[in-house]
Amino acid sequence: MRTDSISALAELIREAPRCVAFTGAGISTLSGIRDFRGKNGLYTTVNADRMFDIDLFYLDPSIYYKLAKDFIYGLDEKEPSIVHHSLATLEKAGYVDAVITQNIDLLHTKAGSKRVLEIHGTPAVHRCPDCGHVQTFDEIAPSAREGIIPLCPDCKRALKPDITFFGEALPQKTLEEAIEESRKADLMLVLGSSLLVHPAAGLPERTLRAGGKIVIVNDQNTPLDDRATLRFYNLQETFEKLMGDPGFTL
């Protein structure tokens, strides 16, 4: 196992003309949110794979709202981890230009990050599949936690979160922005992702192909480990040490 130095990571971030972060479920397990495919992940739960099935949603939206009652609609009780807070601080200080995330937990925004590209969508908005009527997460969550399916006041259809379900395309505009940010990045921080879910997992490749560098911090192996300039395994420890680096002006 490689033992790269935190000071080398801090120097890379300080010196990169354009640095972006690419985040996966691993950073939110520090906030008490289950990942999807880990040994205790969401998909080890019976029927959890049905939660984000688009055909099932339109057939019977109660399946989604029952399975997501705690996982999605309890998110307002979760607090950002040290990684979320660190990225927001680094962005404010001018070291990080954007956060590209596979996550749907809203924690980057809650931590204070301003430029967040949610490539798998977001529960921040719920909309009617027929007329497009929109309600916010804050409006939906209290009743959804009580097991009440939110309905469009006009069409009486179940409102669907703007999360990308299986069977749906990723949000095109957001994906295009993420591709462009990846291509322009001199440095990409790959945090808490095993880089197995495509097309999102292909974004670090775009940084590499354009001549940029990647740093990976993840407790599981990834397909790009051998191409990472630096490789770390413990997110919490890495960011605790990184944010204490004397070279940062924060």
Summarize, please:
The protein is of the alpha/beta class and 250 residues long. The chain is built from 10 helices and 9 strands. The protein has helices at residues 6-15, 26-29, 54-59, 61-71, 82-92, 107-111, 137-145, 172-184, 203-209, 235-242, and strands at 19-23, 98-101, 116-118, 121-127, 134-136, 160-163, 187-191, 213-217, 230-232.
Task: Walk me through what this model shows.
Helix 9 links the parallel strand 7 and strand 8. The model has no long low-confidence stretch (mean pLDDT 92). The longest helix is centred in the C-terminal third of the chain and has 13 residues, at 172-184. This protein folds into two domains: 1-32 and 80-120 and 170-250, 3-Layer(aba) Sandwich (Rossmann fold); 34-77 and 122-163, 2-Layer Sandwich (SIR2/SIRT2 'Small Domain'), CATH 3.30.1600. The strands form two sheets. Strands 3-2-1-7-8-9 form a six-stranded parallel sheet, sandwiched between helices. It has a three-stranded antiparallel sheet with strand order 5-4-6. It is 34% helix and 16% strand. It has helices spanning 6-15, 26-29, 54-59, 61-71, 82-92, 107-111, 137-145, 172-184, 203-209, 235-242, and strands spanning 19-23, 98-101, 116-118, 121-127, 134-136, 160-163, 187-191, 213-217, 230-232. It is of the alpha/beta class and 250 residues long.
Give the count of helical stretches: 10
Please state the CA-atom Rg, rounded to the nearest Å. 19 Å
CATH superfamily of the largest domain: TPP-binding domain
Number of strands: 9
Most strands sheet:
6 strands, parallel
Highest CATH level, the class of the largest domain = Alpha Beta
CATH architecture of the largest domain: 3-Layer(aba) Sandwich
Unreliable residue stretches: none
Mean pLDDT: 92
Overall helicity: 25-40%
Into how many domains do the coordinates divide? 2
CATH topology of the largest domain: Rossmann fold
Structural class: alpha/beta
- Which descriptor suits the 3D outline? elongated
What is the succession of H and E elements? Answer: HEHHHHEHEEEHEHEHEEH
Report the span from N to C terminus.
31 Å
